């Protein structure tokens, strides 16, 4: 039923973990061509979904590749020590994608999203807090120490602000500075409100900005950019249709022993949801009222992790020195 709901409302699942859960919920079996690894840490869990075969790509709606998901509900709490641990876990996972880049390799960070809309401002916020060094390589090499890569950063905005496709802006920069790797950070859409700003996904397949809310833009991936693209994303919104369906399901679970449940019609429920969302063209997303604080926390965690992974020779004191 959920699978049909997502399809009818055009809801795309940005998280590979959720796509797998949805398909498994429909079939009750593991998806052929998919392998899953898990690892627990004190404040959460790391799940790695490997989509290995093309057949699995079709079923999952995700390109062949590796999708690492860090689930840490503690990110929604005021717990700096735990946030630091999550940042270190994220850095270790990122290292597997950047280990092949030499010490003096050139890496481009891209913060996708609209800095004027808080739920979509994660990418630009991460860029604000990231350690960039390309200018030091070019103009102040004496300030560098060992274990620092050449890192540049870009927050290209969105089509509605610039009038230019985001992918076009990034492509122009890539052609000019010729990075060996792009790391793109973006806000995502989830199917569960519990994953808002508690889940971080890393994917080696690139990203399609806006796909989770039905606003698909040109893809940013190795095919379009000519260099590998690592995508880091955090869910910041949930589609209202999904919340409505979950609410109906939860209500019916309380009525399982009554005649009301026996007469439930999924198609009728979808029509009711469509009517509620009609003023918004069926595309309404929901975010919590504290989203500004949650974005600030997750941006800090991601920026710290990216800097740790890209500059392994730096200590935390060094990071503070170079950032300022």
Q: Quick one: overall form?
A: globular
Structural class: alpha/beta
CATH topology: Rossmann fold
- How many domains is the backbone divided into? 1
Classify the beta-strand content into a percent band: 15-25%
Level-1 CATH class name: Alpha Beta
Distance separating the two termini: 52 Å
Number of strands: 9
Query: How would a crystallographer describe the biggest sheet?
Result: 9 strands, mixed
Order of helices and strands: HHEEHEHEHHEHHEEHEHHHEHH
Mean residue pLDDT: 83
Task: Label the CATH architecture.
Answer: 3-Layer(aba) Sandwich
Which superfamily, in CATH terms, is the homologous superfamily?
A: HybD-like
Estimated helix fraction: 40-55%
Contiguous low-pLDDT stretches (5 residues minimum) are none
Tally of separate helices: 14
Radius of gyration: 21 Å
Q: Could you walk me through the main structural features you see in this protein, from its secondary elements to its overall organization?
A:
There is one protein chain. The protein is an alpha/beta fold and 324 residues long. It has a single domain (2-323), classed as HybD-like (Rossmann fold), CATH 3.40.50.1450. Helices cover 43% and strands 20% of the residues. The chain has helices spanning 2-9, 16-27, 54-60, 80-98, 122-129, 134-139, 159-162, 166-177, 222-225, 240-253, 259-262, 266-277, 291-310, 316-323; strands at 34-41, 44-51, 65-71, 106-112, 150-157, 181-190, 199-203, 229-239, 285-286. Strands 1, 2, 3, 4, 5, 6, 7, 8 and 9 form a nine-stranded mixed beta sheet that branches. The longest helix has 20 residues, at 291-310. It is globular. The N and C termini lie far apart (52 Å).
